[in-house]
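Batch 3, record 17
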Amino acid sequence: MELRKDYFADVRKDGLHEIGQPRPRLDSPGHVTGKTAYFADRNFPGMLHLKMVRSPHHHARIRSIDASEAEKHPGVVRVLTAKDVPHNVYTILILIQIGPEDETVLADGKVRWKGEAVVAVLAETERAAQEAAAKVKVDYEVLPAVFDMEEALKPGAPLVNEYHGQNYYLYDSGECRKVRFGDVEAGFAQADHILEQSYQSSPIEHAPTETTGCVVAPEGNDRFTCYTNTQAMFFTLDNTSIILQMPGSKLHFVGGTVGGGFGGKVDVIVEPIAILGAKLTGRPVCFIYSREEEMQISSPRAAEKVVIKDGVMKDGRIVARKVTGYTDAGAYSRHSPYGAQKGAAHYPGPYTIPNVWIDTYCVYTNRTPSSAMRGFGVTIGDFALEVQMDKLARLIGMDPLEFRFINAYRDGDMKAHRQPTEGAALIECMQEASRAANWPVAEKYMAMSSYRKGV
Amino acid sequence: MAKVPVQFTLNGSEKAEFVESGTTLLNALRDKIGDTSPKGGCHQGTCGACSVIIDGELRLSCLTLAETCGGADIRTTAGLAEGGVLHPLQRAFLDAFATQCGFCTPGMIMAAKVLLDRTPNPSREDVVEALSGNICRCTGYEPIIQAVLLAARANSQNAA
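Prediction for the assembled complex:
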């Protein structure tokens, strides 16, 4: 590894003694000896296994649930339905006042995606729980479903989620998040060329090697210890406290060791129902997703559609950018309203464009609820933006790297969402990339700096 | 469900358990005997996290029935270090920064051990082939390959 200390040498203290030096990881000794304790490595005498009965339909009304055969199955200790959950309708981000509560822990009267949890079965063995779950009879009335974001936004589309009342998240700014900067139509009028392109992505599953789950042990003092692989310990604790109407002081969460997460373990899904099971049975409870559940049930990265219209000058300056972004939340919000909002701020990319107009929609469909994954809200946007940048460079016959130097944001530039650019270093990164990739650019670009003198 | 007795050697110690017929070796090791170093990632023989060594052969413990292991010599990552001294593979995984979340690590080390036991000086291609049944979703394959090659070099220097 080469450490280049000549960049910003005048503004940085040269105390970077750790960077470039190998340092042992604190957790590695546990990993290589097999001693690291993942949640599933906890085992308690008398532990029950929880299995979920899931919806086979994308959208359906539940007429009735008959769990009597399941309850009689040998080894079954308890069957849970919606009425057993103290505060069954929740949403993760209510903790930061992003509502409404729109998702059920166990389906109540309706299912909105294929795989939604309907009934929880607790049994002495995993096998007994699985067999009993297959005996639960749910009578469904199948409803029309919608899987495409633009179809979902059309008048007359099936309503996915009654808690929202329409198939988009209602922001305080209206049906979408909006960024308005300069005069985008004036920018297009002035442009030498206009390029409008549409980009789409599918949902992406994180597929961690360790599946989502938790092990809960009831303690003698009416507290519950929950060993979990959540990536969001306090979100999970606080939401569990709301769902179970139980003070946080009764909940002891042990975690931080995650066998691969990548954002897929930030939702609050397994812990509340497992703790409820432990509370109602007085027994330790283990709820671990099967591999199939991990792939089909856990939240993926949202599908997105990004429509970009750019106005560009022959000399390489982008003078106007209009973006409409769609984030497929699936049936419930989880973290998607936040992801779509991030996109609104991000779509100008690391470029300074004087006229910007952005709308981003968080759309509800009858698909698996999506949520966080590595840079969600911006990663698909970056794919779209950088493909668009290459297309624009080709359109005006310019080198794609030089085209990016011309438009790169620099310190002091005002971004479209009114945050001034600080510590950008994009120019310097591209200069290094030009050298490392042996992709030469004109000398004037190698002489540029992220600093603007006098700013 | 009928229980069956099973007796084998685990990392040099005699073990005897009654297990339900059909219990996998993975579940017997983890839930009955308490060796949680083999991990359950897929329970269908595709991820390699449950890899153990049975009579010198690399095996997926999630697809091996415990009752078929009577009299076997079973080795897991938990038993690799001797007297608190790490095995060269463990040392190399530390030094080459070959762990991230750590969930695949015990299985990777088992697969690498079987390779080095048979091929003390493997080529890079040998290492890639030997680890091809083990998934690292943190995608840290390159440091893992380098760690196995490093351990092989350390072994040959010790032998020289």
